[in-house]
Amino acid sequence: MAISLNYHLFAGNPLRSKTPKLHDPLSLSSSFESLKSHLHQNPETHPPNSPFFKVLLFKKGRPLVSSSIEEEDGVAPSWHLGWIDLADCKTILGKHGVQLTESSLVYLGSRAEEHVVYWAMDVVENGELATELSNRKQLCFVELRTLMTATDWTDSWVMGDLAIAGHGRALLEWHNQSRFCGHCGDKTVPKEAGRMKQCSNELCKKSVYPRLDPVVIMLVIDRENNRVLLGRQSRFVPRMWSCLAGFIEPGESLEEAVRREAYEETGIEVGEVVYHSSQPWPVGPNSLPCQLMVGFFAYAKSHEINVDKEELEDARWHSREDVRKALRFAEYKKAQRLAAAKVDQMIKGVKKRRSSSAGYLAKSGEFAPMFVPGPFAIAHHLISAWANQDPPTGAKAQMKKPPSGFVSKL
Fold it and tell me: In the chain, what are the domain boundaries?
C-alpha cells in the first residue's frame, strides 16, 4: 500500500505560513499589546483594529479537542481543536481560581483573512475544570500521540490542526523545562509573547529560546542484494520494524551522524548518504519538547550485522518483496479510523475504548507477519519510497510543501 502525502504530519502549520510585519495588528508585538488591553480592561470591548483572540488550552501536553463528525454510514468521526474565545476562556478559568494573564499565554500565530490571533495556555490538573469543559462544550484533553494516529492524512483541515497542536505543545513544554536560568540559576520570565524567555537577574538577563533537538533517521540500503536494514526496539509492539535513528552530536555533520549511528547500532558501514525530507516531532518525552527528524537514504558498504543490544533489540536485512508485503498487509487506514473512534469515545466520556491493534490485521483476519510505522511517521515514507521505487543517487527531498491554498478548520 503506497501512501503519498504532500507533507509530513506536524508540518504545514497554517498559523506559521506568513509572519505579519511589525506594525500589523496581527503581528506578535501588536497583538500582544492588544491582548494586555483586553485582559486588564473589558474583554468584550475591542479597541479599533484590534484582532479577536482564541485560546487553545493544554494539560500536561494534551491539547483540548472536540469531535466534529458523528460516526455513521461508515464515515469515521473526526476531531478538531477546541478553541475558546478569550472572554469565555477568562470566565471559565476564573470560576476555578485560575487567573488568565498575558504571561500565561503563548503566541501561536494568526490568519489575516480571519483577523484572529491564536494563543496556547497550559493549565494545571483540575478535575472540575475538565468536567465543565466536557459538559459545556463537549471538549476533552487528549494525548498528542493519540491524535497523531487518529488524524486522517487526506484531510488538510485536521492535518493543519495537528501541526498547530504540535507547535503549541513544543512551546509549552519548553516553557516548563526552562523555568530557571542555566547560567545563574535565577527564575526566567516570558518575553515576546512567550516566544523567548529572559533571566530575571538584572546582572544576567540571559535570553533563552525554544529548544530543538535534531535527530537523523535513515533507511540503510544494500544495493547489491536489493534489501534494507530495519531495526526493532524493545518498546515496539510485536512484529513492528523501523528505520535506524539517533541524535546528532555537537560538532558533527548530518551525514557523519548517519554513518556513526548506523555503525554504533548495527556494525554496518555506510558510504553515500542522500537527503529525503524532514519532520517536526513534538511527541517525545517532556525533556525533549520538539525533535526534528531529518530523513536520509544511507547506502551500505558492509553487510554483516552486529547489534548493540543496549540500543536495539534486533536488526535484520529485509527483502524488497517482504517490505512490499508488509505495506500491503497492514491496513493503516483502518487503524486510523479505529483511533479516530477512540478519540470520539474519549470526548463523549465513554469508558470502553476500542483497540487499534486490529488495524494491522490482514484482510483474511490474520496478523501481518511484519509491519512498519504508519503514514504519521517519516520512517514510513522512507521505507515505502524505497519499496516502490529505487531512490536515485543525489535525490532531492520527496515531500512537498503544503499547497498555497492550504487552510485549517479553526
Answer: 28-178, 213-348+371-388
Judge whether 28-178 and 213-348+371-388 match in fold: yes
* Distance of alpha carbon 284 from alpha carbon 177, whole angstroms: 14
Q: Is 28-178 assigned to CATH 2.50.20?
A: no
Tell me how far apart the alpha carbons of residues 138 and 122 are, in angstroms, rounded to a whole number: 19
Contact 289, 177 (CB under 8 A): yes
Domain topology for 213-348+371-388: Nucleoside Triphosphate Pyrophosphohydrolase (3.90.79)
Count the Cβ atoms, other than its own, within 10 Å of residue 326.
24
**Grid cell for residue 142:** 487528549
Per-residue pLDDT for 112 more than 70? no
Query: DSSP assignment, residue 24?
Result: S
pLDDT band with cut points at 50, 70 and 90 for residue 135: confident
Q: Which residues of 211-224 are buried (b: 16+ CB within 10 A; e: fewer)?
A: eeeebbbbbbbbee
DSSP, residue by residue, 325-369 = HHHHHS-HHHHHHHHHHHHHHHHTT-S----SGGGGB-TTSSBPS
The percent of residues in the chain predicted with pLDDT above 90, rounded, is 59
- What cell numbers appear for 236 in the block? 515496539
Q: With H, G, I as helix, E, B as strand and everything else as coil, classify residue 16.
A: helix
Separation between Cα atoms, residue 391 and residue 194, nearest integer Å: 42
Higher-confidence position of 128 and 384: 384
In this prediction, residues 180-203 reach a mean pLDDT of 95
What backbone torsions phi and psi does residue 214 show, to the nearest 5 degrees?
Answer: -75, 140
Quote the pTM value.
0.88
Rounded distance between C-alpha atoms, residue 266 and residue 311, angstroms = 9
pLDDT 10s digits, 292-344: 999 999 999 999 999 999 999 999 999 999 999 888 877 888 889 999 999 99
Residue 76 φ then ψ, to 5° = -75, 150
Give 27's DSSP letter.
Answer: S
